Amino acid sequence: MKIVKLDSGNFSVKYTDASGNTRATALKTKDRKEAQRLVKQLKIEELEEAGKLGVLSTDVLQKIVGGTSKKYWDVVQEYEVHMRLSAHSENSIYTMMAIFEQFGRDFKCLDKPMASVTEKNLYDFLNKDDGTAMSMRALRKSSLSQLWNFAQIKMYVLTNPLMILKIDKSKLKHEQKTPKERSIFHKDEVDKIIKHTPYFFKQATAISYWTGLRLGDICSLEWASIKNRNKMVVWTLKRDRLVQIDLNSEYFGGGIVQKVLSEIDVEDKTYCFPEWHKMMADPKSRSKPSVYFKRICERLDIYNRSFHCLRHSFVTRLEKAGLSLEEIGKVVGHSDTKTTEGYLHE
Question: Within a domain: residue 250?
Fold first, then answer.
């Protein structure tokens, strides 16, 4: 290893890598003492010697740069803090933490160094024979890849194997590979639900059918969003996008939604449906509203529908009425027309 001064006056450090090639790293300083301090801080001499010995393993690198080998679950907990500081939604954090814990338990690595997790462990988890659909396997891969990226930045691991691992579709059955086809609600079915459904779902069904709002957005609907009788202004939870809906327009009910909103009981200063907001905000109970709605539909002999199908119905109805995908996308909070197109049905 050698510190050299460049023509520019800045210092650079030259060293030999594990393959015997000479490398150079700019230190971006014209002060020799500062250059020496940086070289010492970067531990370049130790890394060069380890490389020459051919023992520059993950374990050695971790000991050089961090002193200890970080346990898998410690990294997960550190990443959880990072997600909260990065304003991830509670639902996303809850889902990803469940995946991390499932992986750790499956391969008994919760208390083992993260660097001890092998590429095969990750492959086996993504492709295990548990009947999981392709969409869930993709979510597992995405979540673990984000965790490994974080660990790589922190230098707890050298690489992220998930960048090159793939889900083996040849191991999946037809049903697992095929996305579930959503059905839309017809107007008579929506009217039937509204007529025979108790408070909240009566309002929620009408609001979603005429505005396309998701169940989570309706559960968390604020009075501030509807203070103008002629317009709804909502920050959507999933994408944090602002959507504005003209309640006087025939496309959005032409006054129907205004009547529905006027029937909401005032129980809280902020939220229109405080109890349902509380339920949706808790990751442990957020699935309950969807389950309740599906049960209501089945009691009314309406099968294979979810609340989200109302959003599909909304987009399909507007497209048939002549609105462009760009116009519909603005109302539902889509930034890409391809996403909006996926909501269209015959």
Answer: yes
